[in-house]
Design brief:
The structure holds two protein chains of two kinds. By secondary structure, chain A is of the alpha/beta class. Chain A contains eight helices and ten strands. The chains are: A alpha/beta, B mainly alpha. At the A-B interface, strand 6 and helix 3 of A face helix 7 and helix 8 of B.
Chain lengths: 254, 246
């Protein structure tokens, strides 16, 4: 599994410099979590890595390179804040959207048996084996996010970029999905953005905090123990307290 | 109960109508009562049927052509950005000229037959369909497009699987408007010059002061319009189950 190196990344919007000369390494096969208050530029950084910083008025520079100094280009899967399920496709069709989008328009639209088997296998892993033919509107928030996770897994990419994927869920559903994502994305490089210190502490091997204006990264926190870390871990709770306090002070300063 | 409401409204209106005729002692040549109109509908049913077929044909052909050309223009506007500054004013101009003022010219160019009415109908419904589909195609959820981009979709597959289905609810609104205004186009076309159709029948009856026949044609026209809207609405709800409930 390869590292992903972000070098001298800068992004500005009009006169506002969001971040400047940021350097960050996402270690191969590990989870890197990014904490930060709202509006500090977390999502901008993630979009920069994904090559989605193409809006009008955005100025960017810097590189995102992985093994052999190659550019990232489609070697990642994307999981956004909203589940982004397409309401006209059922669960199975949503999970296999990627292969549909990459197909030539002249080819027939049928799903290959291998793809179908794999999608059903993944859906079984996320606990939705019986929902393959449901439309997204008939699913709960947690189930929808499971489908989104299944779609991310279906893409089968070495790097997974996640933007607060569990932010809108209730506490219990969130914990369950964290465990599930941790289990299923074990061997991949994951970059997770979150505003929840507990989430970062449970899942992250490296936790960075993005703060200030223009935003800079703090030293990485590396909590001990295997992920997903237990909620009963004393040290974890102390760290959570510290991080929450830090985030709160930052909010007050802003 | 909910399904019954529209019928109750219609019955109440008919009763109100009859009451006005009876209480104000309306003469037949100004306002015939609903019973007289029904009688006339029965009496002239053959003639009404023939003319209804003509008007319906004009409406449906106009709808088909208008929707196809409206959607086509919307696609061109979305995908050929360079053409936008040329085509958008054109779209506005087609609406700025009162279409009804064009009717006599259309008669001149396309004759007194079906063609001129179809063109008239197309002109009336083209605008709502084009603007609604243009809006729909333009305002695709950014999250969906980002996702498609990261998945490596090309512009054709993204159009087919994301932009197009996402635009369908907006297109459906355009279609609902189109279905409502299509009879206006057809009937106005018939008024200016024709030899068949419900509008033609109304003009003929009017000239002869056969007011009950006029009302009969009007009632059939109203029934067809409402029916067309109803069928379209039900079909759209069935075909596009993901549109927001109205």
């Amino acid at each position: 599994m390869f590292d992903v190196n972000l070098k001298d990344a800068s992004l500005s919007y009009g006169d506002r410099v969001v971040f400047q000369n940021l350097n960050l390494t996402l270690e191969g096969g590990q989870w890197t979590c990014l904490l930060g208050g709202s509006g500090v530029g977390k999502t901008s950084l993630l979009r920069f890595i994904a090559g989605l910083s193409t809006a009008k008025g955005l100025k960017t520079s810097g590189t995102v390179l992985c093994e052999n100094h190659k550019v990232l280009e489609h070697r990642f899967a994307w999981m956004a804040q909203q589940d982004s399920l397409l309401p006209w496709f059922n669960v199975l069709e949503n999970v296999t959207l990627g292969s549909r989008l990459r197909k030539s328009i002249f080819r027939r639209n049928k799903l290959s048996p291998e793809d179908r088997d794999r999608a059903e296998d993944i859906l079984a892993k996320v606990g939705l084996a019986k929902k393959t033919n449901e439309l997204p509107q008939n699913l709960s928030g947690g189930q929808r996010q499971r489908v989104a996770l299944a779609r991310t897994l279906m893409e089968d990419k070495p790097l997974v970029l996640m933007d607060e994927p569990f932010g809108a869920l209730d506490a219990i559903t969130r914990l369950n999905l964290q465990d599930l994502a941790c289990e299923l994305l074990q061997d991949r490089t994951v970059f997770l953005i979150t505003h929840d210190p507990l989430e970062a502490l449970r899942l992250g091997h490296h936790i960075y905090h993005l703060q200030g204006n223009p935003a800079t990264l703090t030293e990485a926190i590396m909590p001990p123990g295997k992920t997903p870390r237990s909620l009963e871990d004393r040290e974890l709770m102390t760290l959570q307290g510290e991080l929450l306090e830090r985030l709160r002070q930052e909010e007050e300063c802003a | 109960m909910k399904q019954l409401k529209p019928f109750l409204v219609v019955i109440a209106l008919l009763l109100f109508w009859e009451a006005i005729v009876v209480l104000l002692e309306m003469p037949d040549y100004i306002l015939p009562g609903p019973l007289a109109v029904f009688q006339s509908m029965y009496e002239y049913s053959d003639m009404l049927w023939e003319n209804t077929l003509v008007t319906m044909a004009e409406m449906l052909m106009g709808l088909a052509l208008g929707v196809i050309s409206g959607v086509f223009l919307a696609m061109v506007l979305v995908y050929f950005v360079a053409l936008r500054p040329w085509l958008l004013p054109l779209l506005l101009v087609t609406q700025a000229i009162p279409v009804f003022a064009l009717a006599p010219i259309l008669m001149l160019w396309f004759g007194y037959g079906l063609a001129s009415k179809v063109v008239m109908t197309v002109l009336v419904i083209f605008f709502p369909v084009a603007t609604c589909s243009y809006d729909g195609l333009r305002h695709t959820h950014q999250d969906w497009l980002d996702m498609a981009h990261t998945m490596g979709g090309n512009r054709f597959t993204v159009l087919r699987h994301i932009r197009w289905p996402a635009a369908l609810p907006a297109l459906a609104s355009g279609l609902r408007v189109a279905v409502v205004v299509a009879p206006i186009g057809a009937v106005v076309g018939e008024w200016v010059g024709s030899s068949a159709g419900l509008g033609y029948m109304m003009l003929q009856a009017n000239a002869r002061l056969w007011v009950d026949q006029m009302f009969a044609a009007l009632a059939v026209l109203a029934f067809c319009s409402v029916g067309l809207y109803f069928v379209t609405d039900v079909a759209l709800k069935k075909l596009i189950p993901w549109q927001p409930a109205t």
